[in-house]
């Protein structure tokens, strides 16, 4: 089974690409959905809280609400990011590997997994090929301003957390540009998918 990892900066169109891939009949998973699922598990939230407490961000009698409040400031504080990643990354990795194993047992020929920080976290070894979706920063910023309640400063914090387009393209097997219309982007995805058949 061929395993293809998809990455790209925030606002580049990964979610749109994922929908197009599923629409074409391929099995695909978004690591962000796995993360959201983990945050619904109170045992996971408690583990995150214990790590944040060790870093001095929570008292001994912390609540789930307090954990989520501290975690919401992660992009402003590398120490909080490190605490979250220490707990969540091994769990996310395990779930991604399990999902791919199950798809292989079902006889799938090609699967796709969206991992926003694929190269930043060194997870490219999980995949046979990698795809980065790139878009100019100005275009990404406009998209984010329309779709999310983020300030310019908040957007820049997220941009700075991720590799630049040229760096991802240097290491990825394939690059798909998304600086045009949705129709043009969807056609580029379809062209790429035809090459996988």
Description:
The chain has helices at residues 14-23, 31-39, 42-54, 64-71, 78-105, 137-147, 152-161, 165-171, 182-196, and strands at 2-8, 27-30, 110-114, 129-134, 174-177. It has 197 residues and is an alpha/beta fold. It has one domain: 3-Layer(aba) Sandwich (Rossmann fold).
State the order of secondary-structure elements, H for helix, E for strand.
Answer: EHEHHHHEEHHHEH
Task: Give helix % range.
Answer: 55-70%
Beta strands, count: 5
How large, in whole angstroms, is the Cα Rg? 18 Å
Let me know the average pLDDT: 93
Return the CATH topology. Answer: Rossmann fold
Number of domains: 1
Rough outline = globular
Beta-strand content estimate: 5-15%
Low-confidence stretches: none
Instruction: Give the class-level CATH name.
Output: Alpha Beta
Q: Would you identify the CATH architecture?
A: 3-Layer(aba) Sandwich
Class of secondary structure makeup: alpha/beta
User: Could you give the distance between the termini?
Assistant: 12 Å
- Strands of the largest sheet, in order across it? 2-3-1-4-5
Report the sheet with the most strands, covering strand number, pairing sense and barrel closure: 5 strands, parallel
**Total of helices:** 9
**CATH level 4 superfamily:** P-loop containing nucleotide triphosphate hydrolases
